Amino acid sequence: MKYIIVGLGNFGSSLGEKLTALGHEVIGIDNSMTKVDLYKEKLSHTIRIDAMDEITVSGLPLRDTDVVVIAIGENQGANIMATALFKNLQAKRLISRAINPLHQRVLEAIGVDEIVHPEEETAERWAKKLCMTNVVDSFELSEDFSIVEVKVPEELVGKRIGEIEFRNKFNLLVLTTIKRTEVKALLGKKRQEDTVQGVAGPNVLLEEGDIVVIFGAKRDLRRFTNE
């Protein structure tokens, strides 16, 4: 996959390095030449760009980019303006960093796809979310095992957990399911609200929009999510 990371501070650079190490193409951009030079050997590409300059940003390969992450943290104004610009340029999937609740509400009003809070979430956790198809969140238990939240793939909608044979086919254990519903938020926007459904049994029916919480070895989780 191809990523653009805007802002090569601690979070942006760490995320870029982990994604690059996983074999993905990462373009890291920053307005500091020092940071661009510092990470040019660690990321696929680094470019010195003012992320608030529409003409310059429009020259980036956005059509070929799967995910844009606005990782600017020290300047909320720059973060918001860059986010709005990439949104206007129709980035396929736009993720932006929020510093506080007010900042998050502004980003929600702009209409970003996801919001990241680096003070609470690690770059490693986000790298995993971005690399595994349909992964909503993850929790690392050890070097080899994780718990992940995965959106129910289209081909599994309408099936019961027992039919899918997670244990036999994928060597995975389904812990629970989560129902995701939309509720009205500020500024007329909608936000998603999650409700945990309890311990998952074989007769639980998977519906569109559901999330399954799965435990297993990382290699098995990658195989399941990428299939």
TrEMBL record:
Residues 1-116 form the RCK N-terminal domain. GO terms for biological process: potassium ion transport. Residues 134-227 form the RCK C-terminal domain. One of its GO terms (molecular function) is monoatomic cation transmembrane transporter activity. InterPro entries: NAD(P)-bd_dom_sf, RCK_C, RCK_C_sf, RCK_N, Trk_Ktr_HKT_K-transport. PANTHER family: KTR SYSTEM POTASSIUM UPTAKE PROTEIN C, POTASSIUM CHANNEL PROTEIN 2-RELATED-RELATED. This is Trk system potassium uptake protein TrkA. The lineage of its organism: Bacteria, Pseudomonadati, Bacteroidota, Saprospiria, Saprospirales.
